[in-house]
Amino acid sequence: MEKPQMGSVIKLRRRRLGLYIAGSVLVYNLGSGLTPAQAQATDALRDSIVVTATKKSEAEDVQSVPLAVTAYGEAQLDAYFVKDISDISFSQPNVTLENINSVGGALNFSIRGLGVNSSIPSIDPAVGVFVDGVYLGITTGATFDTFDLEGIEILRGPQGVLFGRNVTGGAVLINTKRPSDEFEFKAKGQWETGLNQVYQAAVSGPVIPGVLNAKISGMFNDDQGWFTNLATGEKFNPGQSFSIRPSVELTLGDSFDLYVRYEHGETEDGHGVGQNRALYDRETFDLEIGNPGFLSQEWDMVTAEANLDVAFGDGTITNIFGWRRFNSRSIFDPDSTAVDYFKFGEYTEQDQISNELRYAGTFSDVVELTLGLYYFSQDVLYEEVRFLFQDPILAPGQAMGTIPGPLSFYGGGIQDHKTYGVFGHVDVALTPTLSLLLGLRYSYEEKSVNIATILPGPPSPNDFDIPPGACNLPAGDCVFNVNADPAFDPEEDFSALSPKIGFQWNFHENAQTYFHWSRGNRSGGYNLRNTSPVALPGPFDQETIDAFELGMKTQTLSGRATLNAAVYWNTIKDMQREVIFPDPVSGLIQIIANTADARVRGFEVDGQFFVTDNFVLTGFAGHTDAEYTEVLFDITQDGSVDDVDLNLELPRAPKWTFGVGAILDLPVSDIGNATARVNFSHRDTSFYSDNNIGVLSPGDILNASISFSPNNENVRFSVYGKNLLNDVTEGSENPLGFPPGQQGTYAGLNKGRVIGGELMVTF
């Protein structure tokens, strides 16, 4: 396949012209960056699209990338009324992008059966999230809103060479929209059942023509609550959030540009949305909460990307700097009853800084080379308070002595974390159609912690506070009882090599096949939520995955039909898992350990077909087959490691995911154009908890919309529906020992049916 010329491609990369749309999934490929009045959705599907996720000096045609990638451009996110990343959770094969929904703002991303089930900030994710090339070090607060984005790219499978550790499942790349060199304005309002209101606006243009462009965008979300609290009869989980993003882009001549973006955001929510399934049917949205709780999060982030063209290899030197500060403070009611059996409070502070310096160039049209250095550092403080039986309500005739008295628990930890990396990737053209793909990354990490086991303390008030008489982690006066055990090592370093080798064969002008083997690593570490009186909080060892992938991408010469497919086989050694089980004393115990070795295999297929010039059908399907091959830990907590543990299902690994969609553009007399879209997606049931007590329900999600754009007007009016079948799905389901004497689960619910309207204006 012929690749774009490097000079023009670099300009495309720098201007970010809405072309961050990847090629193996086209379910949501509904347009380029054109406004509704400029082009129909089906017209834009024929445009040539390039991607830059491979970090080469040349951007690559979507069908030329030897990777399994799902991506959405600005037009796709607008067309499907996506508010944050979780709104596209059901839209790709073998991908789950969920919020936990018990702890606000914490994500549980999983790709090809690999993910984490934790809000503990010291646990590294299996699916990394990158914003403008900057890795986010903790999973909490990473559910990025999608307004004013150029695109989202979802890379399936290990990405260890180019993106480092903690991407054993894959990577989610979020690219913000750069300032424009002409005046642009975009604003939209959304009103959804709940009532949920979202207002967004962005203005961009030149400050010094040809040299300096600037932009500012903002978002405000007022959600009055979709759920009803049966304990009070009132709407539940109201909240507000806002963010503001000023940015500038400096261009000096034809060889240098600098893009700097700042973001400030705040969230104030009421509570995690939990259903106690010992009390309510899992096929309903019924729930009751005695304590409404609160969530308060605030963050600041700076990213800076500089690009310098150099003569050597006709290449580009790129430097990406990132800084982020995040804090969270919350109280929620995990027993999900009208009685205060169990309340949970957390406080999290995180500061991170990172820098990546890389070179990418091409030599003699034969060798494409990428070399880089990477540094990352973060400090994390985590404090946790638990309140048990603060206001117990006795059953008739029940004696007070049969219920434990009010208890408070306090603990947490502090972690200092540094990472260093060096990487290289080279594509060598062995023949005009056959290329050898080679990559290698070396990573070195240092982690040191102070951990206070979460232990009972004196009673405390019904608010998040350090219990009277307890130690104070930030003040450094805790007695770290785990340090008294000679088996506990509070400092550990981890190193790993992440190699990759593969081939790419362009056997036809518009068709290719590829194969590669790669190794990924997820960092070892510590559990800052140490609740077990017998298990140490680490250090647990790193997780290693060997991944084999064979893929094919095809497209007709006219672009009328596209079909892509991939099969994969992954073997995981020393799998890190969070074993969760109820505890009558502390409420819940969570142990992080290397529990097992496993094998995960499967396939993915997706495509699109133009039935007519203005009617397009799309679809995808994915299958995952996962099993343990050796068990190293008592996952069931029954006192032995045996076949009962070995025969458990791997969590977060639904066997089947599939979806179909249709897009129809129709002129409306001579006054404008209408677009109708409908998509149905299915995801099989899967287990959430490692002991297979918590279950994620199967999902059948039907979304539809109708949009109208008048002629010669940059206005779009839309009516849309999400989850029109009102299907009950969850982001999490954990075992729970409340109410006392009943074995239930606590499920973090997603919203059901949502009907909305939108007005969008662009000029």
UniProtKB/TrEMBL annotation:
A motif (TonB box) lies at residues 48-54. The keyword Iron applies. Pfam families: Plug, TonB_dep_Rec_b-barrel. It is a multi-pass membrane protein. Residues 253-724 form the TonB-dependent receptor-like beta-barrel domain. Signal peptide: none annotated. InterPro entries: Beta-barrel_TonB, Beta-barrel_TonB_sf, Plug_dom, TonB-dep_rcpt-like, TonB_box_CS. Gene3D superfamilies: TonB-dependent receptor, beta-barrel domain (2.40.170.20). Its main location: membrane. Residues 62-171 form the TonB-dependent receptor plug domain. It is found in: Cell outer membrane. Keywords: Cell outer membrane, Ion transport, Iron, Iron transport, Membrane, Receptor, TonB box, Transmembrane, Transmembrane beta strand, Transport. Belongs to the TonB-dependent receptor family. This is TonB-dependent receptor.
